[in-house]
Amino acid sequence: MAKAQSIEPNIADLANSWLKSYNLDYKLEQEKLNDEIDKALQEYFSKSGGKGTNRPDVKLLLQDKELNNYPILVEYKGYKDKLEKLDKNGNVENIKSNNEPNLKNINSYAVNGAVHYANALLHHTNYKDIISIGMTGYKDSKGEIKHSIGVYYVSESNFGVGQKVKEYDDFSFLSKEHFDEFIHDVKTLQLPQEELDKIKEQREREIDSSLTKLNNDIYQNEKGLGENDRVYLVAVSIIATIGIPGKVPVLEKQDLKSSPMKGGTDGDILMTRVRAFLEEKNLPRENQNLIIRTLENTILSENLNKIESGETQLKRVFSKIVDDLGIYYKIGLTTDFTGKLFNEMYSWLGFTQDKLNDVVLTPAYVANLLVKLARVNKRFVCVGLCNRLCGSFNCCNE
């Protein structure tokens, strides 16, 4: 039997005709939407793996009545059974059992591809709420087009996995007349706690895999970095890229210029963000100074800031850390994620062979209760061998 022919061009024509009829300013695959979104799609790993530009078939940026902007990312396919691939829990299956991206699913299914694009925005932009749309179809025995649509809400609240909104026959929910009603439906979505716990467990397994990959990459390809150096580099990179809204801007990869200027090296730029972050968190001065001194020994080192082929080793490692770990703290890093992160990082240190060594971070509500009972300053941080870094991360989680 001959293989069915894709009708993706027909599906695209149909869907785009709807968008045109709603007078929406949509952008096609090769067109630019805005610098932030376009750059994020370029920075994120492609549907084929590795570096490469991600190109949704259609991109839009719509605003609701409260002036909130929502990126809309659309992916088309042209076969009957290529709308979405879900796992046993009913979630979009973009991760394999070994915690690697499921590139086959991302490439083959419309919804999976659209959710992949949404994660690029969660990772590399300030957009926290994204709408992913997949559409596919086929021609029946009469030659008539039969289509199906999947609409998913991808956000920090569902850790980038996505939640199905409703069933739709067309894209009229994006029209000016219906978009606010659609956003109302989106805001009422709520995952059961049991489902959230499963997603968090999956993300934790991904962190393990990403950290192992990152550690091996740095060990094999970045010479002169000891175990402590790797831990400090991850800590500094996360602090610098979390930022504090309205006070400490997020450090982007392009902000590191690999300049030899005194006071303007990549190390200087990173440490400036760390100092500002700790200052805004109102840590006791002695603890700030201790953390900064510890980190400066690595971050300001001559070798890390030496420029070769127009780039420092520090910028190269910083970029790897952001690419491999950024998605996890961009989607809402909690104490669960932080504890997992530090357990893995702690295992990098050569002196820790004891399997009983473990990092468990106290939830914020428990810590606040203990502060009240003990009548101590909640800004006090116990600083020990590795606690000086955990103190920094506890600040991030508050």
From TrEMBL:
Xref: InterPro entries: DNA_Adenine_Mtase
Gene Ontology molecular function: site-specific DNA-methyltransferase (adenine-specific) activity
GO biological process terms on file: DNA restriction-modification system; methylation
Lineage: superkingdom: Bacteria
Signal sequence residues: none
Annotated catalysed reactions: a 2'-deoxyadenosine in DNA + S-adenosyl-L-methionine = an N(6)-methyl-2'-deoxyadenosine in DNA + S-adenosyl-L-homocysteine + H(+)
Protein keywords: Methyltransferase, Restriction system, S-adenosyl-L-methionine, Transferase
EC number of this enzyme: 2.1.1.72
Statement: the UniProt record of this protein carries the keyword GTP-binding: no
Xref: PANTHER family: SITE-SPECIFIC DNA-METHYLTRANSFERASE (ADENINE-SPECIFIC) (PTHR42933:SF1), SLR6095 PROTEIN (PTHR42933)
Protein name: site-specific DNA-methyltransferase (adenine-specific)
Species this protein is from: Leptotrichia alba
Classification lineage: Bacteria, Fusobacteriati, Fusobacteriota, Fusobacteriia, Fusobacteriales
